[in-house]
Design goal:
The complex is a heterodimer. Chain A is an alpha/beta fold. Chain A has two domains: 201 residues, Rossmann fold (3-Layer(aba) Sandwich), CATH 3.40.50; 174 residues, Response regulator (Rossmann fold, 3-Layer(aba) Sandwich), CATH 3.40.50.2300. Chain A has 16 helices and 15 strands. Chain B is mostly helical. Chain B has a domain of 205 residues. Chain B is globular and about 60 Å long. Chains A and B meet through helix 2, helix 8 and helix 9 of A and helix 1, strand 2, helix 10 and helix 11 of B.
Chain lengths: 438, 298
């Protein structure tokens, strides 16, 4: 009797254990009510106003709309694969060492399911190996360095906008096609990877698209956050070059615009500001007319007149909530959040329930989708790096509307301004931009 | 010739900017023997206060020229309030402590004041372009120069003159020199050293704030923008000799002119040149070019 009872108990325990194992195995396909998303962006320091705050706001309106299911079709389903997102906005300032520590904290202690953001290339380069180590889906939103996916392959890391090469290739193409009188050029760029790489790509492309043009031998690379550019502006004014290229951003960009305008630089020279779009709404009437303005892709002021349902929704929702038009970083963060939702929903549809992280990554890899202002293709970095079109326009303040504007806007296709898969940006440009579909 | 005129003017303009900030730093060190890291906070708070009120008064329709009143008022108020608070609230309790401890205390306070800026003014940059726009531009040496930038040279000359006159032609200056040479002996002779310390610290703070307030119309005033300036100011003070007002002047001119020369002729060494000068001076004159003579106590 005792033996029979024991056998029954053992059978019951085995059955319970088997059911538990089955339940655990099935968890991946069960519905999930909530996911935790961290959104790092500069919320203090010089980059907060022009970059971090609009980036945060762009992410916020898209996450709120996803949670409520109020995004325009076809994205009007609720949540990320049905799960409502709770979001923590994190300050990116403090340097890459701090960001690595903060990322570990976010994933290991605070249990974030997804991290979406990062503006600084320094943050992105430092974090990529840590992301792989901690195996958490991370979507880079704005950082520009091409090195992330050109030097390595990553499983858990995605970037949903084009990298810096496209900004500078597009700038050179615009100069060559729309400013035929420009034959000589110089540059003022911050003295770190971003500034050096931006100048290199612009210069190399100019040599390809307009071989008769010549770069100045006196290039300015002031220290980042120097703030005072009076001497550099004098040197640029005395330089015989027709055009000045700059990838300045943040407070440096705004100081350079103020100081250059007071010194007549923008009347004397053609000036290309590859990140100028971040300053246009903030400076308003103080932004000089005639500047060749980029927005690091088809975002912000360059796409204000695009009449698609998604773009109009984004502009109106942002403007109603924050009282200003969305600039580039707002679009870029909104786009990264949207891409994440699409990947979750796609993976859920394929899995027939709430997807595992690996299923989301599979869905994300190589994905193509319509974002708020453009088509995004995850075409490089083995499907982890996006390509998009890129464009430039000429600043012209609209006195009737009382707001900044751009004229002569021209966009170059994604395959025209980004290298093909497996080719580094520098090799591609130096090799004559083979395969570019302009 | 055009290039030479431009280099000299650029150099003098940058020197003026450096001098206005660094003279306060060197005055405080000379009298109180304090390497005051919160000097960067005086600069930043001066800039924020000026930019904030210039913007506000401009919105209210006040004339742009009123911006100049705001600049000097901001420097005076920030210097007076922060200077008094820091000297009376913190430093007076530390005068007998090791100098390194005082540096660390001022560094801690600097970090706190930087965070306080975020709480008071937020993270968005401030623009106060009205005074610069008011003065427009002129052609000098073949290029356009903003008159506001040139007035910086005049302001620095006035500050230098005022410092020289105050130190050498007034009773207060004589007291100051006495305290610089020997604090204990000055006290024994009846000088109220506490008052000398308070006044000196407030003057230094006002000068630091004036540097920030005057530069505010030419920049985007952002959190943390005072840090780089203060690093350069330390270099200037070390070159000129810590505690020497003529040293700060010569150090500023040296750094400003050499930097301008580098930017125009060899931009690659622009960052290097300032600290190269400092290193060379330290090798041959570790006490700086114009360090005040130290009496030997028996």
């Amino acid at each position: 009797m005792q033996k029979a009872i024991t056998s029954n108990r053992i059978g019951t325990m085995l059955a319970a254990a088997a059911m538990s194992v089955a339940a655990v195995a099935a968890t991946g396909a069960q519905a999930k009510d909530a996911i935790k998303i961290a959104v790092p962006a500069f919320l203090s320091g010089g980059a907060a106003g022009p970059f971090g705050v609009p980036a945060r706001n762009g992410a916020e309106i898209v996450i709120d709309a996803i949670n409520k299911g109020t995004l325009p079709a076809p994205y009007n389903t609720k949540g990320f694969a049905g799960a409502t997102a709770s979001v923590d906005f994190i300050d990116e300032s403090g340097g890459s060492t701090k960001q690595v520590a903060e990322y570990r904290n976010l994933v290991q202690k605070r249990g974030m399911d997804v991290v979406i953001g990062y503006i600084s290339s320094g943050s992105c380069v430092a974090l990529a190996p840590v992301i792989e180590e901690l195996k958490t889906l991370t979507v880079l939103a704005t950082c520009g360095t091409p090195r992330i996916f050109e030097d390595h392959s990553w499983k858990y890391t995605f970037r949903t906008m084009g990298h810096a090469t496209s900004d500078n290739v597009a700038a050179a193409l615009y100069v060559a096609s729309d400013l035929p009188d420009v034959n000589t050029y110089t540059g003022i760029n911050q003295n770190y990877a971003w500034g050096q790489d931006s100048w290199r790509d612009f210069d190399l492309t100019m040599q390809q698209v307009k071989p008769s043009s010549k770069a100045s031998d006196k290039l300015q690379f002031p220290k980042i956050f120097a703030g005072q550019y009076g001497t550099e502006i004098s040197a640029l004014s005395l330089d015989k070059s027709d055009l000045v290229h700059s990838s300045f951003w943040g407070g440096d960009l705004e100081a350079f615009i103020f100081q250059g305008a007071a010194r007549g630089l923008y009347k004397k020279k053609k000036v290309v500001l590859t990140v100028g779009g971040t300053a246009s709404y903030r400076l308003g009437k103080k932004m000089p007319d005639g500047v060749v303005l980029g927005a690091r892709g088809p975002y912000g002021i360059l796409v204000r007149d695009r009449k698609t349902a998604l773009n109009e929704w984004f502009i109106n929702t942002y403007k109603n909530r924050y009282g200003t038009y969305p600039s580039g970083p707002a679009y870029q963060y909104g786009q990264a959040v949207l891409a994440t939702k699409i990947a979750f929903d796609k993976a859920a549809a394929a899995a027939g329930g709430y997807p595992t992280q690996d299923q989301v990554i599979d869905a994300f890899t190589g994905m193509e989708f319509e974002s708020f202002s453009t088509t995004v293709k995850m075409a490089l970095g083995k499907g982890h790096q996006a390509i998009t079109e890129n464009g430039y326009g000429i600043t012209k303040y609209d006195s009737e509307e009382g707001e900044p504007g751009v004229t002569d806007v021209k966009f170059f296709p994604a395959e025209c301004v980004m290298p093909p898969e497996g080719v580094s940006s520098v090799d591609w440009i130096k090799g004559g931009m083979k395969g570019a579909k302009c | 010739m055009e290039t030479l005129i431009t280099i000299v003017l650029d150099g003098l303009q940058y020197s003026s900017y450096l001098f206005i900030v660094s003279v306060g730093l060197t005055v405080i060190f000379g009298v109180m023997k304090i390497l005051n890291v919160t000097h960067a906070s005086f600069f930043t708070w001066g800039a924020y206060t000026a930019a904030f009120f210039i913007g506000k008064f401009s919105e209210m329709g006040w004339p742009d020229a009123f911006g100049f009143v705001i600049i000097f008022a901001s420097a005076a108020v920030v210097g007076l309030v922060l200077g008094l608070l820091i000297e009376r609230g913190l430093l007076r309790h530390m005068y007998e402590r090791d100098e390194v401890l005082i540096v660390l205390a001022t560094f801690g306070l600097f970090l706190m004041l930087e965070d306080l800026i975020l709480l008071v003014f937020g993270v968005n940059p401030y623009f106060a372009y009205q005074p610069m726009a008011l003065l427009e531009s002129v052609e000098v040496g073949g290029i356009t120069r903003d008159v506001y930038g040139l007035t910086l040279i005049g302001l620095a000359a006035l500050v230098a003159l005022a410092c020289w006159y105050g130190q050498n032609r007034t009773k207060w200056g004589k007291l100051l020199i006495a305290v610089i040479y020997d604090r204990e002996m000055s006290e024994a002779m009846g000088i109220n050293v506490t008052v000398v310390y308070v006044v000196t610290f407030v003057i230094g703070a006002v000068l630091g704030a004036l540097g920030g307030a005057y530069i505010a119309p030419t920049v985007s005033v952002t959190p943390g923008f005072g840090v780089d300036v203060i690093v350069l100011s330390f270099a200037v003070v070390v070159i000129g000799g810590m505690g020497s007002i003529p040293g700060a002047l010569i150090g500023s001119i040296l750094v400003g002119l050499l930097r301008a020369l580098a930017v125009h002729k060899l931009p690659e060494i622009e960052l290097f040149v300032v600290f190269a000068v400092m290193a060379i001076v330290l090798v041959f004159r570790p006490e700086g070019l114009f360090a005040p003579a130290k009496p030997r106590k028996i």
